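Write out C-alpha cells for Glycosyltransferase involved in cell wall biosynthesis.
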Amino acid sequence: MSEDRALDVRLVLGTSAGGVGSHVRSLVRGLAGEGDTVRVLGPESTERRFAFSLEGAAFDPVEIGPSPRPLEDARTVRRLRRLLEGADVVHAHGLRAGMLAGLALRDSTPLVVTWHNAVLARGPRGALIGRMERYVAGRAAVTLAVSPDLVERVRELGGGDVRLAEVVAAPMPSALRTRAEVRAELGAGAAPLILAVGRLAPQKAYPVLLAAARLWRDRPGRPLTVVAGDGPLRAQLQRRISQDGLAVRLLGQRDDVPDLLAAADVVVLSSQWEGRPLVVEEALRAGTPLVATSVGGVPAMVGDAALLVPPDDPSALAAAVTRVLDDPELADRLRRDGALRAAGFPTEHDSALAARRVYAQLVGVR
C-alpha cells in the first residue's frame, strides 16, 4: 500500500429498525475513532432511530425504501450521484442500497456491499429481487455477506471478491431492574417466562411461535410468552392470540431488552431465515438459554451453546423449549456455554477495523 492517511467513507442504507442500522452505527463509531471522515446516507427515520450523527458521522437524508419505486428511485440515484462525489469508498448495506449506490456511481470509486438478508419472496417479486441480486453481486468490488450461505449465494450469482462479514452486536448495557421487578411488570409471577425479540414481520415466523405456545400453554405454571418488537403483522398476530386464548403478550418496541433477557427463562427465535441475528448474540452474552431455528448463519454462531430445531416446526420448537424448562442442568449448561461462546465473538471495534481493512485494500492505503 502506498500511503497512510484517513479515508473518506460514505455509508448507504435504507429503512432499518434493527440489525442493519445497529451495524452501521458501530461502523461509524469505529471509523470516526480511527480519524476517518464518515457520511451516512439514508432515510431520516433511520437517522432518528440510530443517531449516526451523534457517533461522529455527517448525515444526508436520502429516501431508500424497501421496495422498488421507479420515479422515486430515479430521484434517489440523482441525489446519491451528487452526495457520493469525492468519496474514497462507498459501502452500501442491503440489496436496495447496493443497487441504487451502484447505479449512482459513475467513476472508479470502489463499491462495497454488505448482504444482510436472504431473499424469501417467490413469484414475480422473487424474480425481480433475483435480478437485483445479480446486478449487485456483479457491481460490487467486494461483497461482505453476514452468513456462509449468503457467501455461497453471491458467488453463484457471479460475485467476484466475496467475504464473510464481521457483524456483531453492540455491547449490551447491564439490566437496570431486578428479575423480580421485570417479571412483576410483565405479569409473569412464578410462571416460566419465554421471550422472543424481533420485528413483527414474515421472516420471523411468529405464527410458528404462536402454534408452539398453544402446545405449551397447558403445562404446569402456564408459561407466559412475551414478544418485544413491532411491525406490520402486529394486528394479525394479536387477533390470533385473542382467538386462541394464548398466554402471549406483544410488548411493542422496547428499550429494555437487557432487563427482559435477565428476567427470561428461555429465549426463542422461530425465524425462517437469519444471517447473524443480534438477539442471538445478546442472549448468549446474557447467559439466557436459547432455542432457535437452524437457519442461515445461526448454527455457525451458536455451536453447541443453544438448542436448534428445524424451521416451520411448532412441535419441535415446543419440545425444545419444554426441555429447557424441565431440565435445570440443561438450562445451566446452556447459560454457561452461551456466555463462553459469546466471549469469543469479535468486538464492535474488531468489526469496524475489518471493514476498514477492506476499504484500505481497495483504495491502496494503510
